[in-house]
Amino acid sequence: MQRYIFRRLLQMIPIALGISVLMFALLTLAPGDPVDLLISSDPRVKPEDVVRLKHLYGLDQPIHIRYLKWLGRTVQGDLGFSRTYKEPVTELMRDRIGNSLWLTVTAFVLAVGVAVPVGIYSALHQYSFLDYAATTFTFFGVSIPVFWFGIMAIYLFAVWHPWTQIPGLAWVLLPPGGISTPGVGEGLPFLLDRLRYMILPSIVLALLSMASYTRYTRSSMLEVVRQDYVRTARAKGLAEGVVINKHALRNALIPLITIMALSISGLFAGAPITETVFAWPGVGRLLVDSVIGGDYVAAQAVLMFLAVLVLIFNLMADIGYAFLDPRIRYD
Amino acid sequence: MVRNAVTVPALTVAAPVTQAGEGYWQIAWRRLRRHRLAMGGLLIIALLVATAVFAPWIAPYKFEQIDLLNRFGKPLAPRHLLGTDDLGHDVLTRLLFAGRVSLLVGFAAALSAIALGTLVGVVAGFYTGLVDNALMRLTDIILTLPIFGVLLLLGRYFGGGIAPIVAIIGLFGWTTAARLVRGEILRLRTQDFADAARALGASQSRIIFRHLLPNALAPIIVAATLDVGGAILIEAALSYFGVGIQPPTPSWGNMLQNAQSYMWTSPWLAFWPGAMIFLTVLCFNFFGDGLRDALDPRLRL
Hints:
By secondary structure, chain A is mainly alpha-helical.
């Protein structure tokens, strides 16, 4: 097992390096380096200043030297300085990672909490009305454009008037965006306030994962209940609940856990759209803002962060799978 | 249709004993016709394609025509059935023309992603060894990228027109197809009919194009169908963020770009374009799902 983990770690290195090369190339070969952008925004910059600045920032060096220097700094945790935010990118990301975690974790819990029971029910009552309803729902979930779903949710629950016209129901109106009411205090009021702000974005963010988890749970469960050992368990005269919970479910969950581990990073990376629509100050929104605003130092850092996250979760999924399923060979 | 070009009679015994003379594609079509959601999806897709193709004749106005005296017109008005937007464009006209762009991007991007993926998959699966290893590591790397951020970035550099958006989506969308095709080719290349073709002295390209690829066609077609919906979603998201198709060319995504800021006053502006994307992608997913059931040989009996 240890050898397997070690080997997977070793395999990660070339992929991580490949990603870093690709990322660096994408952002460095982009038209316009930081100094060019500075000149275009300030006509007073003289040609000798340009040469001096390019030398100062090391932009006059060959590309492979710049890559190695950038890699060296990044590995040591220095992600550079953001021009637009006038802050080191590490500082910039610290709060935002926390904010994104609030949303991602809530969405994940929501998705799993709905998808697993619904998927199991669907599989055990195949072709029932609720099975059809759930299957249709999964199609809706994977087909709906996230930003449109977000906008519609804001309209229905944060803008639309009839809700508030009913006396005593004004509080039903949810905030259309943002993360908390200024000056709400600490402790319980803070938490309740935060929850109100999280309702819409976490549902919107969760929908896609909810749909795909439901589909996977259903098909995984369907496959398992057809197995011989489930029939054997029934033939032994075990109670149906024991058959389902102890024999079927535990085996059906193994592939599911892998898929979930793989998709947590996807949930994190999928947040840019939701965070932008709901003005949630997280990593995803930072990515969108920095890319659109041309702050490539910040964009590069966020992209690299997300890629490393995917790598880590992929590794965890593989290791988790090997732990959970004794049939997996480690070699 | 004879799927394996090897004309040894014994090999055709494996064909399903359904109706005499009925080939694989006829069986698939018969199965597909019974799939109500898939047929419904196909019908709506056909309708959407028709309205897109004939948009210049159906649309009541020109798509760039603005009516500054009649901005934010409410729906169901006599002259503008779905109202007008912030510049006074007729929303119905914009929707019809946007459908052209969104569908074109969807089909073209899916096609290029599938073509590229098939190429990579065939090369990796057929030649195996070092080539396979290198190509699959490349696939791993692309799958690890935070793809939405990368697309956003490339959209900002090169976006604006239809061709660059298609290229960007295709360039990063081929990985699923590549893995799929590679798996199929790896499985098929060791089967008896491939050995037989090799023994008969068939060239590599003949083995690949006449014997292996036709047998891998079913999953490729399904993936292509589902990819169209995916590509439409990506284009819409990029355009929503302003790095996809640029106005005045309308796309369902860029019609939503400003809609959020007018939500308090003109909510219908945000409704229609998103509803069209939703409907289109839903239909492609229904159709793709039905197609999978219809083409999957394991379910044939």
